[in-house]
Design brief:
Blueprint (H helix, E strand, L loop, with lengths): L2 E5 L5 E5 L8 H4 L6 H7 L13 E5 L35 H29 L2 E9 L19 E4 L8 H13 L9 E3 L7 H9 L4 E9 L12 H12 L2 H9 L3
Parallel strand pairs: 2-3, 2-4, 4-7, 5-6
Antiparallel strand pairs: 1-3, 5-7
Length: about 260
């Protein structure tokens, strides 16, 4: 199973963490040319924690190195180094059978997502999706300097392919996140810096152009050590609270479109 779906339909808000997964099938694992530690660094570990307080969630369970749910079906399997930031991911090209299995699972993920979103659309008229990701900012090495914070906001709000009518809501969410009390200071939250969003948010807007607002939100890994995987619980919990603080605002704004 590529992802776990949990929908109570008690709210029009969905939180997804589709790059959270680390599991791989035995058949794919034995052909990997990339180490588990590198895989973990390039995945979005623990982003499922950001969905804890949402009543509707989609949590990735399979590694993006097996199937990347945030890419189109033509590009969802990393076959060449240029598909994966220069990393050689497979020792040999996967067999046609392995590829077809992965593509079938990919199709099931998107058809299941569409079914759930259609149900939300029927119940609420409008619905909102947080497409939650995380990103590295310490790539030069564990003892090197961190990447320039001027170029790497703590929160990136991606508005990929978003209908213009939602931009005022995006602006309100950004201001809410900036004003959140993060250990006595404001958060640096900016729009479309480096990561405007990937295939999943585009797909949502294309399939639900009148009813869905999807923000691809990237949290810089200030809440963990990229190299060891250690979580800084206080920092993580504060960021989770910051995200949750936007829920009442979103629900109130969606009501205006009914």
């Amino acid at each position: 199973m590529l992802a776990e779906f949990n929908f109570k339909y008690t709210s029009p808000i969905v939180c997804t963490a589709i790059h959270n997964g680390h599991d791989v099938s035995e058949e794919v694992n034995k052909n990997f040319a990339v180490s588990e530690s590198i895989r973990l660094m390039e995945e979005d570990p623990y982003t499922d924690r950001f969905t804890d307080f949402a009543s509707n969630t989609i949590i990735g369970r399979t590694s993006r190195f097996e199937v990347d749910l945030n890419r189109s079906i033509e590009k969802c399997i990393y076959l060449k180094p240029e598909d994966a930031w220069g990393l050689r991911t497979r020792k040999d090209k996967p067999s046609d059978n392995v590829i077809s299995k992965s593509l079938e699972e990919y199709k099931i993920f998107y058809s299941t997502s569409k079914n759930h979103f259609t149900q939300l659309e029927k119940k609420y008229g409008r619905f909102f999706v947080y497409d939650i990701h995380s990103y590295n900012h310490h790539r030069k090495g564990s003892t090197a300097e961190f990447d320039d914070p001027k170029l790497n906001p703590e929160i990136i709000i991606g508005t990929n392919n978003m209908p213009e009518k939602w931009l005022s809501l995006v602006d309100k969410i950004q201001k809410k996140l900036i004003m959140f009390d993060y250990f006595g200071r404001q958060l640096d939250a900016r729009v479309n810096v480096n990561f405007p969003g990937g295939h999943f948010s585009r797909w949502i807007h294309n399939n639900f152009p009148d009813s869905a607002c999807c923000i691809a939100i990237e949290f810089k890994k200030i809440w963990m050590d990229e190299w060891t995987g250690e979580i800084y619980e206080e920092k993580l919990n504060k960021l989770i609270s910051a995200l949750n603080s936007t829920f009442p605002l979103i629900e109130a704004e969606l009501e205006k479109y009914k």
